[in-house]
Amino acid sequence: MANVVIIDDDSTFQSLLLEHCGLLGHEASLAGSLEEGKKLLSNHQADLVFLDVRLPDGNGLELLPYIHELPSSPEVIIITGMGDANGAEMAIKNGAWDYLQKPLSRQEIILHVKRALEYHEKKIQRSSHVNLKRDEIVGKSKALRFCLDQVAQCAETDSGVLITGETGTGKELFARAIHLNSSRSKRPFIVVDCASLPENLVESILFGHVKGAFTGANSDRRGLVEQADGGTLFIDEVGELPIEIQKSFLRLLQERVYRPLGKDREHTSDFRLVAATNRDLEAMVRQGTFRSDLFFRLNTFNIHLPPLRERGTDLEKLTMNFVFSICRRNRLPIKGVAPETLEALEAYSWPGNIRELENTLDKAIISDPMAPVLYPIHLPPEIRLCGIRSKVSLKHEQFPEEPSHHLPAPTTYSLTLPFFKEYRRLQLSRIEKQYLQRLLAETEGDGELACRLSGLSRSRLYGLLKIHSLFMKEFSSPKK
Ligand SMILES: Nc1ncnc2c1ncn2[C@@H]1O[C@H](COP(=O)(O)OP(=O)(O)OP(=O)(O)O)[C@@H](O)[C@H]1O
């Protein structure tokens, strides 16, 4: 039995859908407006949503991004009374299952409900993260979850995979996760780093050689391709593979045969290929520095890892994990992370991605090993500056209604909580400052009015403004 949510204010259509969902053995719930629909979806594990475009309190399509983020990731069928091509485009771009126009016949309703739910069930089975071994992959942003779904998809097949993404985004980590989740997980995972292959030894390292095959070949050597037999061969930095070797490499991928140097017989190896690059292989093909046939062979299934700056809350999770493991590795007490430090880390663009984050935290912790909390002062100047710049630009924005608490979800801080006193002091100071800034803005610098509104005495208000480096023109010097 599946859960269907119907968000439509048309009572005839509501009853029609209710009746047919019931006949198919599914449970259906009703909402007549955007607001009701949102409430219903937040309390229901929906599998399928029928969403009307014209609702009394707005356009139904506005709900799409929200629905997309729901943990049950339901399918959405957009219903509209009149054809609207722009709406359809937006709906499809936002991942809607279908876009239908009223009136709908009984058969049409049954067909669409059945198809969408069948697809949904398969999707859920495929992307079940419960069984996916994530290795050390930290994060649960939407962008990362999408890549994990792709790993789950690959796990069921033996096809080649090309992982792309900027440096330090975790390409090797993902390659290992693909191996770990595949039927080859008990066999070797062999890494070939094309960027560090000495040009004159590429063939020998990949394919092996027999003693005496060339000057310096003092003994037989098994190549990496042979070692990968039965397992996974991970070709890292494949864009660096010399053009001269690309031809024999293509043959290896097509036929799984190779010839060790000095042997007259060809050998076979049964490996799964996973390749990775931070270079634009298509551009290299256009420039003639990468073979197009090899590119097409590698690019059977592509996983593109997003840069850290596009992973939202993952940065905080990664930071907490790294701080914990770096402190453990160096036998230091586990440090806390001040909210300002997180803000500075979040404001930085991380061209070196997760590797750069880990290295930065490593240096920050070692620079002051006994400090119980990591403050911005421990960070490199360029990252601190980003934090300061973002704070300055925030000042120009409207003040938030509620003070932001910046206490991460309990799980993220469970082992790296800052000291209570320190945390309390920082939060109080932040809230005080926000209050004072708002007071200054609302009273437009009128000291008397500010005292009346806030209930603070003149000297207390002056003192607080001074602490927070704020300025009110009528308070340039306190009255004695
Ligand atoms: N999601 C993640 N969770 C935890 N650690 C991660 C994650 N992604 C990457 N890392 C860590 O970041 C570092 C860099 O990852 P990795 O070597 O896999 O990146 P890469 O994309 O292959 O880099 P390059 O392109 O430079 O070879 C490693 O220490 C890895 O463990």
Automatic annotation (TrEMBL):
Keywords: ATP-binding, DNA-binding, Nucleotide-binding, Phosphoprotein, Transcription, Transcription regulation. GO terms for biological process: phosphorelay signal transduction system; regulation of DNA-templated transcription. Residues 137-366 form the Sigma-54 factor interaction domain. Gene3D superfamilies: 1.10.8.60, 3.40.50.2300, P-loop containing nucleotide triphosphate hydrolases (3.40.50.300). One of its GO terms (molecular function) is DNA binding. Residues 3-117 form the Response regulatory domain. This is Two-component system, NtrC family, response regulator. The lineage of its organism: Bacteria, Pseudomonadati, Thermodesulfobacteriota, Desulfobulbia, Desulfobulbales.
